[in-house]
Write a structure and sequence with these properties.
The chain has about 240 residues and is an alpha/beta fold. The chain is built from eight helices and ten strands. The strands form two sheets. An eight-stranded mixed β-sheet has the order 3-2-1-4-5-6-10-8, sandwiched between helices. Strands 7-9 form a two-stranded parallel ribbon. Helix 3 links the parallel strand 4 and strand 5. Helix 2 packs across helix 3. The radius of gyration is 17 Å and the shape is globular. It starts with a strand and ends with a helix. Bound molecules: NADP nicotinamide-adenine-dinucleotide phosphate. NADP nicotinamide-adenine-dinucleotide phosphate binds next to helix 1 and strand 7.
Length: about 240
């Protein structure tokens, strides 16, 4: 199977690429900074594309069996559009090139039933901080992205993780179409769950939640790292390079 991964240079994206190569897949990794991409493999192609550029997205998607999106941007109080506009361009490219299968990351906070039953501090302090303040514009755009997938005639799966953290390897995790109480998801488990969806096709045209069950992160450290994670600024455009 050949797949194209958007957001491939991100923290989940790199795990997705590594795990897909380990499964024998041919992978095209899409990034705005191919020179920084750390993985090298005979089955890997690294493609430069900004997801806001429809022509570049179409070039990246063409010729693959499936698309994976691990796109992400840091939380911001300003409007975020990368999820919805990026997915609109991906879906248009899929239709234009005859690719039907797409698996995309969203977030459990987008689920209208979002309720982790997490106790007083989690429910009254952390969750409002994350979903209504820090992450408000992120989740608004992810909601739009999910709507585009739902309204499409393609074979989509939305995967909603809870708070992301790192583990050295894939651990025990649960995937459910129903309500999930798990508050954390390891990025390795998230990548594994997405690739399994491609193989097993268990949740086509459905949104599922994924949560890690056997390991818990240090909550304070995890929140600080996610809250203050800053992506590098995007690379200069050709026009900016000429002007410099
Ligand atoms: N953090 C959490 O606790 C949490 C919880 C639930 C869901 N999520 C979701 O999980 C997903 C993955 O998160 P993550 O932290 O692993 O990702 P990440 O490290 O933030 O990486 C996201 C990648 O997206 C790429 N990207 C951003 N804008 C782009 C653009 N315009 N064109 C092309 N590529 C672009 C960037 O790659 P380049 O710069 O190389 O182009 C970046 O490396 C995100 O959708 C996030 O919202 C996160």
């Amino acid at each position: 199977m050949s797949i194209v991964v958007f957001g491939a240079n991100g923290r989940t994206g790199q795990l997705l690429v590594r795990q897909a190569l380990d499964r024998g897949m041919a992978v095209t990794a899409v990034t705005r900074r191919p020179g920084d991409f750390p993985i090298d493999d005979g089955n890997l192609t690294v493609e430069r594309a900004d997801v806001f550029d429809p022509a570049a997205v179409e070039r990246a998607v063409a010729g693959h069996d499936a698309v994976i999106s691990a796109l992400g941007v840091p939380y911001s109080r300003r409007e975020i559009t990368v999820y919805s506009r990026g997915m609109a361009n991906i879906l248009a490219a899929m239709r234009a090139t005859g690719v039907r299968r797409v698996v995309s990351i969203s977030a459990t906070a987008v689920d209208p039933r979002y309720d982790n039953q997490g106790g007083y501090v989690f429910e009254r302090v952390l969750k409002p901080l994350i979903s209504r303040t820090m992450g408000r514009t992120t989740y608004a755009d992810q909601r739009l992205m999910e709507g585009l997938l739902r309204d499409s005639d393609l074979d989509w799966t939305v995967i909603r993780p809870s708070g992301l953290f790192e583990t050295d390897a894939v651990t025990d995790y649960v995937v459910t179409e129903g309500f999930i109480t798990g508050k954390f998801t390891s990025r390795s488990d998230l990548a594994d769950a997405m690739l399994r969806e491609l193989g097993e096709q268990a949740h086509v045209r459905a949104a599922v939640a994924v949560a890690t069950v056997s390991v818990r992160p240090n909550l304070v450290r995890m929140i600080m790292r996610e809250a203050f994670h800053r992506a590098d600024p995007p690379p200069p455009t050709a026009g900016e390079q000429r002007a410099a």
